[in-house]
Design a protein that fits this description.
The chain has helices at residues 18-25, 34-60, 64-74, 80-110, 121-129, 139-146, 151-161, 197-221, 260-263, 278-285, and strands at 8-9, 168-171, 178-187, 190-194, 227-235, 238-245, 256-257. The protein is α+β, with helices and mostly antiparallel strands.
Amino acid sequence: MSQVLATVRTFVPEQWGELDIFSKFYPGTYEFNSECRKALSGVSSHFRKASVLFGLARKLIPNLSQDREQLQTHGFTPALNSKEFSAVVEGVFTELYSSIDCARKVIVATHRHCRRIPDSTRKLMQRVKEDQVGSEFPEALRQSIVSTDWYEELLLIRDTLTHSDIGYCSLDPTTNSISYTHQGIRAEGKPLIINDVVAKLESLQIGVNTYLGNVFHYLNTTLKPHEVDELCGIFYARGYMRKLRFGEHIDLNAGVCMSRSWFLTEEGYRCPLADSCGAFARAETA
């Protein structure tokens, strides 16, 4: 029986965002403790989880019509589909907030020298928006925070959902929009009603993503030039590496191949990207 060896390309800089770049290159500039390292990982992890949950919520939308059919047929419905959809929607809200909460920990870790920087997302957002932080706090970060006009509403929702029961969603058969209501979330003394919760989540997802991109774009400007080892991929069940230097243009040809010397000596293990890879050619002349 022939053996099938794993082959996968892992070096895909064309798909890196600002957070990916910072996560790979920050150790040349900053020393983070284990808590901050987990927070940095949590920024992307929570955002991805929010995206997965939002996708699941979309898949559950057709089920909402069953609750209405039960009500019309039997005069009563346990609204199980609404509860399932609402629970997933609330997960999106809380995961989005967790993502910016983790980003705050990174901001604090990299700017401890700034006066009046609290280790609290709520207080940091409030103080920056009220211009109550020290003048040494970077203007780029200040503008990133000031532009989050969605933050207070997301905070209100997150705070209530952390300690409350599930809200209620209802499908409008005329417009096909889905409203969300939660009696425990009070806005101006009244229960919060979101007339189109799918549109609201789309807006929040874009807002949070833009905010995170702005924050880590600035943080990347604070990094010092240095080199890191990067896994290019798993070819023939072996790991192939290259050395990258932050501060230089990074694409598929960037850096210097670290695996050339050993895979050239073993027949059948030549990197499948070697003939078109600038890093391989650079290693040949090094």
